[in-house]
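Subject: Predicted fold for Sperm associated antigen 16, 587 residues

User T.R. writes:
Posting the sequence so we have a shared reference for the thread.
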Amino acid sequence: AVLRLVHHGFSSLGSQRDDGACKRFALWRHIHLMRSFFSEEEERMSVEEECEEEMREAALSAVPIRTPTPSKQQIVPKTPEAVDDFLRNFLRRAGLNRTLNVFEPEWYGSAQKLLSETLRTAWTGVFIPDALTHRQLLQRELETVRVETDRLRQDVLVAGERLVRTQRERHFHRLQHRRVAEEKNRLIQHSQQLKKHLESYEPVLRQLEDKYQAALRQKTLITLEKDRVQNPTDARLNEEKSPNLKKSSIKRSGNGNKSPTKRSVARHPKDTEFPVCSRRNPPLAQGAFQKWENTISFRAHELPISCIDLHPQKLILATASDDRSLRLWELLPNGEKTLLTGEGHSDWLSGCSFHPDGAKLATTGGDCTVRLWDLSRGRCVLSLPGHGRPTWGCSFHCRGHLLASCSADRTAKVWDLNSQRCRLTLRRHAASVSSVCFLPLSDLLLTASADKTLAEWDARLGACTASFHGHRHPCSHAAFSPAGDATLASCDTRGIVHLWDARKPALPTATVDAGPLAANQVAFSPSGKALAVASSDGVLRVVQVDSGVTSSLSGSGDGVQSVTFDHEGESVTCAGRDGVISVWAGQ
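User M.O. replies:
I've generated the structure tokens; pasting them so everyone works from the same file.
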């Protein structure tokens, strides 16, 4: 009926082709008639569907056996006929191109919108668009896919470039690794060859060392023989063993006073003779103190204190510091008092020692010199250069006319203060000589070295009389006991303290462990019954030599550098890296 109605409407318009306005009016009139027809038909179909649904429900309720019914989501609604395609084909065959051009925008504008809303409200199923709408959707999706494809293509190109660059870098690093590995293997081979070469030289080095030691011994013997030839009077005195030795020596000394220039031809005119060894009774032993009390504590320097020494007769303390200055302090019962400040070294100070008469002071430092200070005038009166490296310490002979010093150049020197020249150079140690000291009232000299050995020297002959081997670490200090019982003490960088009998240098008589940090200095009490040890762990230890009982005192938080007893042995003074002086009294 619809087709007949449309055919009849368009056939009636055939005779009136020339009048376009009438044709368009008639066309829209038929379109509205078709819309009203479609709406009536849809209402009728919806009523029929409702009736069929009620009848189906009634039948299902009457039948006892329940049959599975498809769900509403599975029901496919009836698809309406594509009227726009029919009209478009009809207008094209009829040659109504202008009408077709007007029809298409109107249809796809208001008519298509109205039809879409009608179909969506009428049917509950999925809306199926027409071919043009579907084509437009597909074109949009295609454009989206093309854009994403272009973006992915760009990402792939960038990833490809990164991959190529990474491959090149990997190849470069492989070549570098191969080159480094080859260089490493070559260096290992060279190192092995050098080790073999060095091992081949070790026998030669040992032979050269033996020859060097033999040459030193020969030199010492030649020097002794030379002195004996140049001084026939002294040689005659040494060879004579008759009971009249004392009388003949007195006569010769009287003759020497008449002609003093005869003996001074071979030596320096101001050289002094070594005195005859003499000993005095040691001081009485003080009681063993169980407790120590800190009586005085004050800051002497801003920088670390390297060494302290006590005046021979007075409670005056000398300090040497890394600030290139020395200071004298008077230790009073209620405090301290600064007496003198001396500056003359061009580098840090490492050691200080009072002259036996207390009027002079010797210092050593990093400027490789030994300086003598006149305390009454408050200035340096003598500078003794001669060491090739920094000097570590010094010690006066008991008579005060000789001064011994030690240095990092592996030597110790004996200086004559009258002639102001070096009398002896002691060479034996294979490393830096860290300390030197004279045995009280004797010509014996003791040195400690970083080669883990101690050496005892006869200062008159310049010969080593004994060697002490027992330390496993570099020795930092050594000292004689003032009691004169041939006891000496030494310490090393591991904190091990050895007590030795100078008559039996093979093995130590006792060992005290003050480690694991270094022991910097040891000092005997005047009676030789107590030994003070300055340690880098900030603890001052007082050891009873006979019993081995140790008392620990809190010396300095940064480490104790130097220590000394007073004249009676009743108090001990220590100095630390924090520049603080502490005095402990025994109780």
